[in-house]
Amino acid sequence: LPLVLLPLWWAVRRGLRPLRTLVARVAARRADDFTPLQLDLRYAELHPLLSAFNTLLAQSAQAVARERAFVQDAAHELRTPLAVIGAQAHALSQSAPGSEAHRLALAQLERAIARASHQVHQLLTLARLDGASQRAPEPLDVVAELRDALIAVAPRAQARQMVLSLDAPEALPAVLDRVALHSVIDNLLSNAVTHGRDGGRVQVSLRADAGPPPCNAKHGPRLKQPPHPLLHLSMADDGPGLAEADRQRLFERFQRAAGSTAAGCGLGLAIVRQAARQMGGEVVHAPGLGGQGACFEVRLVWRITPAPG
Fold first, then answer.
1. Strand 229-237 relative to strand 201-210: parallel, antiparallel, unpaired?
2. Which of 15, 60, 89, 154 suits 71 as a labelling partner, its CA being 20 to 30 A distant?
3. Closest Cα to residue 277, out of 181, 211, 188?
4. More confident residue, 116 or 165
5. Do the beta carbons of residue 202 and residue 163 sit within 8 Å?
6. Residue 124 — very low, low, confident or very high, per pLDDT cuts 50/70/90?
7. What is the pLDDT of residues 243-301, one digit of tens each?
8. Contact at 8 Å (CB) between 286 and 232?
9. pTM (2 decimals)?
């Protein structure tokens, strides 16, 4: 028995040596070291394991790089309103109550606080969409959600003498992620009212039909054949539209249209794209009303009952 077990033990120990080497190299790595492992594994069975681990390292490196860039951009964007808040607070303390300088500083302070609050809200929304696991969809009426959003933005539109219109059926039940849907509706509608022209139009359209799966469905839940019915939600305006250079980076974070003087932090369309992906859909850009302005269409899988499983 010893003559049989000793060679067997030696063979197993020798065969597992490359695996032990791999484990030791992984355990010895620093938490911030994402360089690929370079090992000469003798057995072909271990090559897929090493390849999968190096792929995971590359994905982790990209995720960390995105998070660092996000934090740096967020700090840069928040620096300006915070500096304005500090300067105007000092001006308020130095000016006499009721004076013109006091009123001007107070107005500037309120605008800076509103801008900082909006930026923080957008940053939190994007971070929640980026990192959160997909929430359970719930039954809702998409038309009712649109009506509520239009009512909320109506005062801003009236201040610019803009006409809001809704082209949709009386009701359209669906099972969707309510938070993600609100992110899509609120950001697209706010952009249309903000960047449209004074006295212009904003048209919101909603329809449901059958169509092929969204072209970038790989970013969300996998869509299977046969084609699912799709919800088409679009918001179009007749404003100045977007320059060709801006269209190339529409959905990038912290990107604003060249020459734009409207308040914003350049996160609205990035939130829309991420929210659409969260729901397994896509967002596309097209010319707006009468070939002017901009139109954004979001295509989502239309379900009126919860998906199985």
1. antiparallel
2. 89
3. 181
4. 165
5. yes
6. confident
7. 776 777 777 776 666 555 555 567 788 888 888 888 888 998 888 888 888 899 999 98
8. no
9. 0.65
Residue 173, exposed/middle/buried by CB under 10 A (0-12, 13-18, 19+)?
middle
The alpha carbon of residue 266 and the mean position of all alpha carbons in its chain are separated, in whole angstroms, by 11
Three-state helix/strand/coil letters over the chain: CHHHHHHHHHHHHHHCHHHHHHHHHHHCCCCCCCCCCCCCCCCHHHHHHHHHHHHHHHHHHHHHHHHHHHHHHHHHHHHHHHHHHHHHHHHHHHCCCCCHHHHHHHHHHHHHHHHHHHHHHHHHHHHHHHHCCCCCCEEEEHHHHHHHHHHHHHHHHHHCCCEEEEECCCCCEEEECHHHHHHHHHHHHHHHHHHCCCCCEEEEEEEEEECCCCCCHHHCCCCCCCCCEEEEEEEEECCCCCCHHHHCCCCCCCCCCCCCCCCCCCCHHHHHHHHHHHCCCEEEEEECHHHCCEEEEEEEECCCCCCCC
Does residue 120 surpass a pLDDT of 60? yes
Pairing of strands 138-141, 294-301: unpaired
282 C-beta neighbours (distance < 10 Å), count: 20
Give tens-digit pLDDT for 150-208.
Answer: 999 999 999 999 999 999 999 999 999 888 899 899 999 988 998 888 999 999 999 98
- Tokens 């959003």 belong to residue: 149
In DSSP terms, 140 is beta-bridged to 174
